[in-house]
Amino acid sequence: MTTLPASARPAPATDDAQHRSRRWVVVFWVVVFLSAGLGNAATGLMDAQRDGLPVAAWQLLTWELSSVAVALALLPLVLAACARWPLHADNWRRRLPLYLLGSVAWSVLHVAGMVAVRKAVYALLGEHYDFGDPWVRWGYEYLKDVRTFALLVITTHAAAWFGRRLQGEARLFDLPDEGPPLEPVDRPERFLVRKLGRDFLVAAADIEWLQAAGNYVNLHVRGHDYPLRSTLAGIEARLDPAVFVRVHRSYLVNLGRVVSIEPQDSGDASVHMDDGSVLPCSRRYLPALRGAAAEGRPVAAPKP
Mind spelling out the 3-state secondary structure of 266-288? Predict the structure, then answer.
C-alpha cells in the first residue's frame, strides 16, 4: 500500500447517498403504480357488478397488475434515459423528439410485456386471453402510455431540478462542454455555487474529488456534492494537473487529500481519501497516480 502524508480514516464507498436516493425513487413509483393498479381494479369490479358484466375479480387484477408489473420493470430504463439526456431550457426542443421516440419504444415494450403476462396467467388458470386487433389495441394503449411516460419523465426531471436546487449547483463561467479548452488555459481558483437562492464561492483547492455523473460532474467539498454541468474531461483540462489527478474514467482526486493507495488483486486499486471516502482507481491510471505521489508534486493544503 502506498501511503501519503495524512491521517487514514478508511470508510465504505461514497455512493451511499445516491443509492438511497434511487431506492426512494423506486419506492415512490412502486407505491404510485401499485395504488393506481389496485384502485383501478376495485373500481372496475364495482362497475362490472353495477352493470351486470361477467368479469371476475382475478381478471381485473390480472389486467391491472400485469400493467403495473411491466411498467415498474421498465422504470429503470426511463430513469437511466432521464439521467443520460437531461432536459434544460437550452436543449429541450432538440431532445423532445428523442423523448417522443422513447415513449413509443416504452409503450411497445409495456404492451408486449403485459400481454405476455396476461396470457401466462390465463393459461395457468385454463383460460384464453384475447388481446384483440394488435394495431387497434396498441393505438389505444399508446394514448394511455404516452401520458404515463410523460408523467414519469416530467416528475423525474422536476425531482432532479429540485434536488439540485436543494443540494446546490456549481458553475464555472465559460466552461466548455467537451474537450480541452483553448490555450492559454485559465485555471479557475473558485467556483460559484448557488444553493437555495444564495451564491457561495468554493475555492478549487477545497475540492476533495470530482465524480462524473451523466452530463454533470459532482464537486465533492466537505461532505457535499455540488453538480457542475460539464464533462469530466472538460473540467479536468481546466484544473491544475499538479493538484488534480485522474484515477478512474469517472473520478479525479485532489492529491493533497489522498491518504493511501491500496492495490487490489485485479490490478486496480482503492484510493483512501482524508474525508473517509474510498474511491476506485483503475489499472490504467494507477501508474500516473503513483508517479504523482512519488514526485511529491505541490498540492493543495490538507483540511485543518
Answer: CCCEEEEECCCCEEEECCCCHHH
Q: Model confidence at 193, in pLDDT bands (50, 70, 90)? A: confident
pLDDT of 300 higher than 50: no
Cis preceding linkage at 184, omega within 30: yes
pLDDT band at 172 (very low <50, low <70, confident <90, very high): low
SS3 167: helix
pTM (two decimals): 0.61
Which domains occur in the chain, in start order?
A: 2-7+169-295 (2.40.50.1020), 56-167 (no CATH)
Could you give the CA distance from residue 209 to residue 176 in angstroms, rounded to a whole number?
A: 20
Say how many C-beta atoms besides its own lie within 10 A of residue 263's C-beta: 15
State the CB neighbour count (10 A cutoff) for residue 159: 15
pLDDT tens for residues 109-127?
999 999 999 999 999 999 9
Q: CA 153, CA 174: separation in Å to the nearest integer?
A: 29
CB contact at 8 A, 258 and 247: no
Q: Could you count the other beta carbons within 10 Å of the beta carbon of residue 267? A: 10
